[in-house]
Predict the 3D structure of the following.
Amino acid sequence: MQSNFFVRLSSPPVFFNASGKVLPWLVTGSLILGAIGLWSALFVTPTDAQQGEVYRVLYVHVPTAWMSMLLYVVASFYAALHLVFRTSVSAVMMRAMLPTGAWMTALALVTGSLWGKPTWGTYWIWDARLTFELLLLFIYLGLIAVASLIEDERKTDQLLGVFTLVGLVNIPLIYFSVVFWNTLHQGASLSMSGGSKMAPIMKITLFVCVFAMWLGCAALAMARARWQLLERERESAWAGSVLA
Amino acid sequence: MSAEATIAVCVLLTLGVFALEAYNVHRLRRSMTQQPSEDSDAE
């Protein structure tokens, strides 16, 4: 039953219609949670005892940094799917993650840098995590360049899929860099094992901000994939009926 | 830069990026829905 659902979802018209129904929910959820998260981050959470007010940058920086990695992992998942099944939906989903992922990486670097100046005393340092995150931005930009090499996107899908999977090696390096090396960047803000020292209200607010950004990124990537799919399938009967 | 200014810049940058991305997707949608009529005009 479930596998049938996923097989059906790889059909372009089914994906186009299903994503059209999901999108308004993603956008609405993102806007509501984003507003709640921002309000709580700015007005409800207490001032940090050590960092003062500037720690509030964390509510923007951590979600963008997580999204920069998550979007790459999702793009790699679709790249692998595309290399195996060669469906249009997997190709457009892989491509749709890249611009949003690049923006999230740039935001993580800029917000981290703005937070670093008052906290570390410098905007930038060649610390392992910062360097691998910068490398992620270059990987995203390289993939976007490959994606737009040839006007007929179908000809670069395979190449893009392989390059995306090669770049995946950078994600564990970013995530575990604070464990592998002695870095200036602190360890994980939140941990699954419950080792976080954050106050509950701070933790809840951070999760709300992360979830809002996750919904927002999913909405952007899905909307982009929808229209790219329509462009790709322009000659087909279903696309013709949508555009009519 | 004061802490308040730093926070404001970070929040505005993030909101700006989301707005820009939404505009880019909107432009893609508009180009898709307008192109057929432009093609037929050219013919």
